[in-house]
Design brief:
Mean pLDDT: 94
Low-confidence stretches: none
Largest sheet: 5 strands, antiparallel
Structural class: alpha+beta
CATH topology: Peptide Deformylase
Helix content: 10-25%
Number of helices: 3
Order of helices and strands: HEEEEEEEHEH
């Protein structure tokens, strides 16, 4: 398929609520889904939301590398996953800080608070409903990508902007 251009912070598409996908339209998504997976992989990302390639639709793809799985999280898929109209249905009260980067904010990362455990519902690429529980990195990725669907970038979630900077500078110091 095709690798698409990833739009960056400052583009107004990233600040708007993405449109829900109608059930009848799921069958028309395979090319977009494959493009998103190819684009995510080409950029060395773990997740990508449709607004990041300029499409206002509630669609995300993600792939959790084995080395990023949280111990004890047996629900973490390691192959590419597709979530259509995803919705977090339960947040655990416990929050944890973690470093995040974003393909739409290249070269920067920041420390972001996220719920440590969530439950989410979505439609998969075949049109089936799914419900999953996620914790740790898996939960972080889902929250980050759903934020994209709601027009939110991770710096807006940060508590301390002193924990925000260029990856190479943060790693050096």
């Amino acid at each position: 398929m095709a690798i698409r251009k990833i739009i960056r912070m400052g583009n107004p598409v990233l600040t708007k609520m993405a449109q829900p996908i109608q059930t009848d339209d799921v069958a028309s998504l395979p090319d977009v889904i494959q493009d998103m997976i190819d684009t995510m992989r080409a950029a060395n990302g773990v997740g990508l939301a449709a607004p990041q390639i300029g499409l206002s639709m509630r669609l995300i793809v993600f792939e959790i590398p084995k080395n990023r799985q949280t111990a004890g999280d047996t629900n973490t898929p390691t192959s590419p996953q597709v979530l259509i109209n995803p919705k977090i249905t339960h947040f655990d009260d416990e929050m944890e800080l973690g470093w995040e980067g974003c393909l739409s904010i290249p070269g920067l990362k920041g420390e972001v608070p996220r719920h440590s455990t969530i439950t989410y519902d979505a439609i998969d690429a075949e049109g089936n409903m799914l419900t999953r529980h996620a914790c740790g990195f898996h939960a972080r990725v889902i929250q980050h990508e759903i934020d994209h669907l709601d027009g939110i970038l991770y710096p807006e979630r940060m508590l301390n902007l002193r924990q925000f900077g260029f990856v190479d500078e943060l790693e050096e110091h």
